[in-house]
Design brief:
The complex is a heterodimer of chains A (about 160) and B (about 450). Chain A is an alpha+beta fold. Chain A folds into two domains: about 45 residues, no CATH class; about 90 residues, Cupredoxins -  blue copper proteins (Immunoglobulin-like, Sandwich), CATH 2.60.40.420. The longest helix of chain A has 20 residues. By secondary structure, chain B is an all-alpha fold. Chain B has a three-stranded antiparallel sheet, with no helix packed on it. In chain B, helix 5 packs parallel to helix 13. Helices cover about 60% and strands about 5% of the residues of chain B. The chains are: A alpha+beta (about 160), B mainly alpha (about 450). Chains A and B meet through strand 2, strand 8, strand 9, helix 2 and helix 3 of A and helix 6, helix 14, helix 19 and helix 20 of B. Bound molecules: iron/sulfur cluster (SF4) (3 copies) and copper (II) ion. The site of one iron/sulfur cluster (SF4) has 9 residues of chain B, from loops.
Chain lengths: ~160, ~450
């Protein structure tokens, strides 16, 4: 495929736009860091609540209670973890200094669906998701702009 | 833009010789039987049993992340499932025997010469997948059932009917094999026209007629060639080549078949459902998918089927219809529906890659554990049984998935445009469809 001058121009433009989407600093709402405590119940094979939302910089304490068998909680990205025997409450404290969306998952084999026992920790806005959405829109638009349209459409 | 790999005599003789392939077969067959055995008698805990861990984490990772995208049907070239049946059918393990064994050798019914049955078997497996994936005994039953079915079909029918028409994974391997950068094709079609006896299809003393019921001289896409190398052995005119080629070369000629189009919807939709159910934070959904036979499970089944066979194709049909109106085309939408579904092939493959990256990287450490303690009985064969579970590359995962999904979308846009040019219909509505499903997938995974 030979690219025309115009197409090269579009490619460079799209590349720049892509770089902007990936690296541009986004305005962040700065909330003063606070202490956040969640009581999370673990049972086969879910956490309740399953989605925890905090602000960047918050000190997060998760009080994990297991209602049936031994369960654990491991936070992706932070690597923090804890395990709880049935009926026992254990707590895990960490500072949520990385913004984004992180899965937390059970780290003690607890039954069939154990590998899928998953919750979500939301720290501030999920900027990575929005950047990814931006990239997807850019990919679709630049794809349409870059490559020639069908002959009949041009004629209309 | 093709480069023939078989022009190197080392490559060619390695592929033509039956021994390296037999070696691969035997290793795979041993692993397969081992997985059936551990599944039946080992621990019922999925993530500590060799069968579930090796089939659904190790094999699956290699298949979807490496084998299919880079080697197309490469896995089928060493797959152990059809082997015992094929050996019985042929009455030989290596070269064709001097006396052909008498088998029924029935032809597969014409009505079923498509991949609808495979669409059905895959969907069935998909509906029970949460149980299959996590229960060693059920995994073992599924593996053993495939083996027995393949043997039975090899005895009753000619060639590899199990692979062509029934194997639940064959449909998507074939569909996505079109994107692979390797292909088996004839060098010169002219030579085939004058070739007497067509031994590549009918067999000869040097090898068997195409087990996949394909005439190599007519190959234009990778979908149904199992890369078994028989035609390389039988062609007396040295007319078969394995080529390196650009990715997705087969997608330039869009398919017109509805069974293949629906395969694309099934795969795209299943990846989205799994991303939500298995990797999402919704516990009720997981238990609904797992509790086979309950009301909740039937609800899950209905939703699954409605999404894959109803919502996705309906929205896609609307997009194709809109494109047709925009281009003032009088080709009815149903004639180009299947052609445009080709754009979902690269997209679906990338959806699966993105989903599997997360699933595989977080569970890969179980592979080392199960390797040393295959039955979950406390063995420690290789000293790796005491490793603790540890997810890998958790920080690289999101950027990787983004790259894969956005790349898949771009690839799908390109494919839709090519199809649009071919059928003279505006592809933008289809592109919007691809973009919307990609956004949903991003939302589910990130
Ligand atoms: S079609 Fe299925 S059974 Fe046949 S070789 Fe491929 S994966 Fe194995
Ligand atoms: S045997 Fe070789 S030359 Fe003859 S039809 Fe087959 S591929 Fe063509
Ligand atoms: S005989 Fe040739 S065309 Fe047929 S499946 Fe084997 S490699 Fe493919
Ligand atoms: Cu668990």
């Amino acid at each position: 495929m030979k690219l025309s001058r115009e197409q090269w121009f579009y490619i460079i433009l799209a590349g720049l736009a892509g770089a902007l989407i990936v690296f541009a600093p986004l305005p962040v709402r700065v909330a003063p860091p606070s202490q956040r405590t969640f009581r999370v119940e673990a049972s086969q094979f879910a956490y309740s609540p399953a989605v925890l939302t905090v602000n960047p910089g918050d000190t997060v304490t998760i009080e994990l209670v297991s209602t049936d068998v031994v369960h654990g909680l491991y936070v992706d990205g932070y690597g923090a973890s804890v395990t709880a025997d049935p009926g026992q409450t254990v707590s895990l404290t960490f500072i949520a200094n990385e913004p984004g969306s992180f899965r937390f998952r059970c780290n003690v084999t607890c039954g069939a669906l154990h590998p899928f026992m998953i919750g979500k920790l939301q720290v501030g806005t999920n900027t990575l998701l929005w950047r990814a959405v931006g990239l997807a829109l850019l990919a679709a638009f630049s794809g349409v702009a870059l490559f020639p349209r069908p002959a009949t459409v041009k004629a209309v | 833009m093709r480069s023939e790999l078989t022009r190197f005599s080392v490559v060619k003789s390695l592929l033509k010789n039956r021994w390296p392939q037999l070696f691969g077969f035997i290793v795979m067959l041993a692993g397969f039987l081992y997985a059936i055995m551990t599944g039946f008698i080992g621990t019922p805990v999925g993530n500590n049993n060799f069968s579930t861990v090796f089939v659904w984490i190790a094999w699956w990772a290699i298949l979807i992340l490496v084998a299919v995208p880079f080697f197309g049907r490469g896995w089928c070239a060493v797959c152990p499932i059809p082997l015992p049946g094929e050996w019985i059918q042929r009455g030989a393990i290596l070269e064709p025997p001097s006396r052909k064994p008498r088998r029924f050798n029935l032809r597969w019914p014409n009505k079923l010469r498509n991949i609808w049955l495979q669409n059905l078997t895959f969907t069935l497996v998909a509906l029970f997948s949460t149980v299959i994936l996590t229960t060693p005994k059920v995994t073992a039953v599924v593996l053993a059932a495939m083996l027995f079915l393949a043997v039975g079909m090899s005895i009753v029918f000619e060639r590899r009917t199990f692979c062509r028409y029934l194997c639940p994974v064959s449909g998507f391997i074939g569909l996505y094999a079109q994107t692979a950068p390797v292909e088996l094709r004839v060098k010169d079609k002219q030579v085939c026209i004058t070739c007497k006896g067509k031994p590549c299809y009918n067999g000869s003393a040097a090898g068997y007629g195409c087990p996949w019921d394909v005439f190599p001289g007519g190959l234009t896409k990778n979908t149904y060639c199992g890369l078994c190398m028989e035609c390389l052995r039988t062609c007396p005119n040295d007319n078969i080549a394995i080529n390196l080629r650009p990715f997705a070369a087969d997608l330039g000629q869009p398919s017109r078949k509805l069974d293949e189009a629906f395969k694309a919807f099934i795969m795209l939709g299943a990846a989205m459902v799994y991303a939500g159910v298995l990797l999402g934070p919704w516990g009720e959904l997981k238990s609904a998918a797992y509790s086979v036979g309950t009301v909740a499970w039937f609800g899950y089944v209905m939703a699954f089927l409605a999404f894959i066979f109803g919502l996705l194709p309906a929205l896609f049909w609307l997009a194709v219809k809109l494109g047709q109106v925009l281009s003032k085309s009088n080709v009815p939408a149903r004639h180009v529906f299947a052609a445009f579904a080709t754009a979902l092939v690269p997209l679906g493959l990338m959806f699966w890659v993105a989903f599997s990256l997360s699933f595989v990287l977080t569970n890969a450490s179980y592979i080392f554990i199960a390797f040393s303690d295959p039955f979950g009985w406390g063995w420690n064969l290789f000293g790796t049984a005491a490793l603790t579970w540890q997810p890998y590359l958790t920080t690289a995962l999101v950027p990787l998935q983004t790259l894969v999904l956005v790349g898949g979308l771009l690839w799908s846009v390109r494919t839709a445009q090519k199809v649009g040019r071919e059928v003279k219909i505006q592809p933008v509505p289809v592109i919007v469809f691809s973009m919307l499903v990609t956004l949903v997938m991003l939302g589910l995974l990130l």
